[in-house]
Amino acid sequence: MKRSPYLISLLFLLGCSSQPRPQGKMTLTINDDLGRTVSLNQAPSRVISFAPSLTEMVYALGGEGRLAGVTAWCNWPPQAKEKTVVGDMMSPNFERMVSLKPDLALMIGSRPGPLLKKFEALNIPVLCFKDETVADIQRAIKVLGQVLESPSRADSLTREMDLQLAAIKAAVDLVPMEQRPKVFAELGTSPLFAAGDSSFIGQMIALAGGINVTGNLPSSYAAVNPELVVKNDPAIIIVLHPQASKEQIAQRLGWQNVSAVKKGRIYPGLDQDVILRPGPRFTEGLKILHGIFYAP
Amino acid sequence: MRRDIKTWYYLLPASLLTILLGLASGPAGFGLLADPQVMAIRLPRVLLGLLAGAGLASSGAALQAALGNPLAEPYLLGVSGGAAFGAALALLLGLSAGVGGAVGLPLFSLAFGLLALYVVYSLSKVGSRLPAETVILSGIIVNAFFSALIMLLLALAGRQLQEMIYLLMGNLGMIFGTQSLYLLWVCAAIIILCTGYLWGQGRSLDLLSLGEQPAQSLGLKVEKLKLRILLASALMVAAVVSLAGVIGFVGLVVPHLARMIAGPKNSRLLPLSVVLGANLLVLADALARTIAPQEIPVGVITSLLGVPFFIYLLRRKKRSGL
Fold first, then answer.
1. CB of A223 within 8 Å of any CB in chain B?
2. Complex ipTM value
3. Nearest by CB: A254 against B41, B96, B163
4. What is the pLDDT of residues A193-210, one digit of tens each?
5. Where are the alpha helices (DSSP H) in chain A?
């Protein structure tokens, strides 16, 4: 926790100044993660979320009343499944979106896509967020806090995250690098899919005190040869897909001598949404991973 | 005959080298006996490479002979596309896990591979003949249809998307579970039996190359023979697709390569195609495993190598006045 009290009180003041205003009137200018400047003349009341992580943030900020549409992947909290589904970023149902008369769309992306351009052409404001790092998540929550008129809630959420991050970091820092467990995160079986250090799960593993055995992959996610697992000998295998059981993984050709297999430290059945989703519950995921890595 | 012996004199040691090279290369490091566990992963993969290459090449050679068309190939005729659609459908229906994975997926790919071949066959038939142009045209049409169906499945797929895409790209890297090992034995049996059958039909295929009418008048049951050969080819392609996905151009290029070495006689052409195909795919996969830290689908490599070779063949033929 190296956040200056001055900054926090400043944010708090900012929060206070916008709260007493009556709903519906505000002027907000936001620079989103794409570097676009978005002006909102009134508080949005019909928001479409294009990512499960963003939907979770809206709920966490108490803004669910303003949520008009979500994606087919938005499954948390369970009430989110009752919202109107507008497809997803890959296959959006544009007619349904427009019929919802949205006054704000929330998207994930590091470069402008066709959907963004369509919304811009219709003069519907769009906020784009990055979701690659923990800092991205916290910044998104703060921006959404402003937009959804609950900056203090955003503040307490991010402060809580900071505390939990600091707690895990303090525990992990006590362990020297060479004693940290080598971890293989399996994201798919046919072909075998793994994550590099630049992926979100790669960062989660590092934050939780593990060493990702496929960390030096050139891309965030890639198909890898099962030989690599044998060669790098992970002490722990976390299974982030439903396609293979612990027994099936233990029986794979040539994996019998992998430490994780010998010691039975294969972990299927993890809550993928908590661990892989760059949303407000990521600290829960961190705790689960830390618990697995440093199980007594 | 002497030319034959000379060919095999070079080919057999070369094949041995290929297998050793296949076993020695991989991301865990170059070497043969470094780690028996790594070998346990590489050996089935090299085996699958040999089988898939052999199966695709022999099915290509047999199709070219049976249809009397040098462009006949499982990939171009839509058989691979049909089989891939079947496999992708099985994935979408959730048949890839458990017992379903060992039975459902191969059965689906066989059924749709056969269907594709049957449609091409009946579309391209003019009277009792199968003219080259109509075979290729109907192959294109059937391929286009199955491509559209595959795209539909890709659009409908959720979690299975990644698996489907790798299936369509052709990949020998999916064999590392015990379950796929059983499937490997089944496929081995199918490919060995079918190749054996096709080899046995070598003389009949030579007769067929004289033209259907002369062959018929010499006592050959042409329609029956053709149907059996189509069936054997489709069986092999479906077996390959269910384990390794769609690997293009091996079935087209290898028989041509074999014909350049051994001449047009089918009883010589077939075994040579089988061995060359097996070698080629094992080498291509060794390349696919080592050029990057991630897996490169071997189908990409065979297509990248196959297309220039095919262009070379075309130009050569053009120069010699077709």
1. yes
2. 0.81
3. B41
4. 999 999 999 999 999 999
5. 5-18, 52-60, 94-99, 114-121, 134-147, 151-173, 200-207, 226-232, 246-250, 259-262, 272-276, 282-293
